[in-house]
Structure formats: C-alpha cells, structure tokens
Amino acid sequence: MSLIPFDDRDGYLWMDGDIIPWRDAKIHVLTHGLHYASCVFEGERAYGGKVFKLHEHSQRLLKSAELLGFTIPYAREEIEKATLKILAKQNIKDGYIRPVAWRGSEMMAVSAQKTRIHVAIACWEWPSYFSQEARARGLRLHLSKWVRPAPNMAPTASKAAGLYMICTLSKHAAEDAGFDDALMLDYRGLIAEATGANMFFVLGGALHTPTPDCFLDGITRRTVMELAKERGIEVVERHIGPEELENVTEVFLAGTAAEVTPVSQIGERSFNVGRLTQTLMEAYGARVTQPD
What we know:
Blueprint: E1 12-15, E2 18-21, H1 32-36, E3 39-41, E4 44-47, E5 50-51, H2 54-67, H3 76-90, E6 95-103, E7 117-125, H4 132-137, E8 139-148, H5 165-176, E9 181-186, E10 191-194, E11 198-203, E12 206-210, H6 219-230, E13 235-238, E14 250-255, E15 259-266, E16 269-270, H7 275-287
Parallel strand pairs: 8-9, 8-15, 12-13
Antiparallel strand pairs: 1-2, 1-7, 3-6, 4-5, 4-6, 6-7, 9-10, 11-12, 11-14, 14-15, 15-16
Helix pairs in contact: 2-3
C-alpha cells in the first residue's frame, strides 16, 4: 500500500487568515517551530460534518500557546469559524482536523520574542487511528523505555509538538517489536498514558484512570469519565503503579484519534475486552454524533 504524502494532495487548508490551495502551504526551513519546537497543535474529529468538542479543543490550543510563551493572534471564536469554514470547503463529513500554531522564521536562535505566530488548520478523511482488526482483538501495548517528564521539566499541560518526540520513539519501538502501541510511565515510575491517548483500567468493578499531573488531561478522557458516571460506574482518578496491572480485568485507551479502543495485552500480561469497555465504546460512539 503506497502512502499519499501530506504535502502533495488536492484540496485546501486555512492558513494565517486565508483559505489556500493545499500544495501552497509552505514554511521556511529556518522556521523557529521546526528547530526549537515552539509549536502547539490540536487533534479534532468531525462526525457527520460536526466537530466534536470544538470549543474545548480551540480553548486548549490557545492555552497551550500561552504555556509556551506566545499568543495566538486569533480569538477562540475566529479559530472555530475558520475550522468550520475549511471543513465545509473540503466537504469533510467524517474526518480529522489539525489546527497548528508555531513561531516563524524572523529569528533563528533560542530567543524568539519577535517571531510572527502562524496558524493553520487542515482537515482530511480519516476513519480510524487503529485498524479495525486491532480494535476488534484489542491493542497490544509494549512498555516504553521513555518516561513522561515532571511538570518542572517541560510544559506538560500543553499539547506541544516537542512533547511528542518520545511518543514517536516509543511507538516505533513498539511496532518494531510486533506491538500496536506503547504504555508510557512517568518520571516517578507510575502509569501515565499511551503514546497518543489516555488510559483506563477496570479494577474491582470500578473504572480507574491515572491523575494527569504530568501529561495531557485529554478531552476524550473527560468525556469518557462523564459517560461512565452517567451510567452509575464508579470513576477513580488516582496514581496507578504498574504492579497493579496484576489485578486489572479490562484496559482501554481514550483519545480523539483513538476514540475508545480496547487493550488486550500490556507486555506479557493479557486482558479481556469486557462488558464495561464495550459499554463505554458504544456510549462514546453515540455521544460523538450528538450536537454539543
């Protein structure tokens, strides 16, 4: 199966206030965001032409930029209007949206106060992050050697490009070892997340999820917690050690791209794709098609 490069596609995207042809979206090789990771982004999904949790995603984009020390030159309402405009222009009903903001090329040094802040929004058809076969059997997770840094080591509450470098390394290592994704611990040796999604565990009939004090508090994560509580499922947010996996009966991931996806294996330990996971998969599938 040949890949279609993302720089050579038909269509349009929104960039710095205008809709432009897809192939005309260019940045200079000396862009600060490329060299020094001064870049933030969002991952959003459209279902039936409606963007799920658009307000929350747009607000988080602005907050991520603030945490990296720059201000996006568009208000939340302007970003949302641009998102819907390019979604309609591309005629995307069920797809993925990627807003991204970065420092430009006016300064090429660590110091970058006078760089221009650029913003772009692209969208494309994208049915599922993981294959249907992997989702049906449950994902197999490798244990990553990379750990999530402490909050005083990186702006861990932001969705910043630089924080995903160790995710790429972890996922590549997992795939090379025959797994689908990787489980990442944090700097304390506690369970953090997968490479692009939060994690949930069924333990003693309750739903447990790690406290996001050094990684992203996902929008899908919060949605799943709400759905569980609505159904009378006890939700426990706490620090979780890897040794507790011995007593876990079900595991699943939750993220905008991953949606709700069951996990059948972590390292050498296996899990069932059980009733509670199935319930929340169905509940999330129904929720994303409702208007906000």
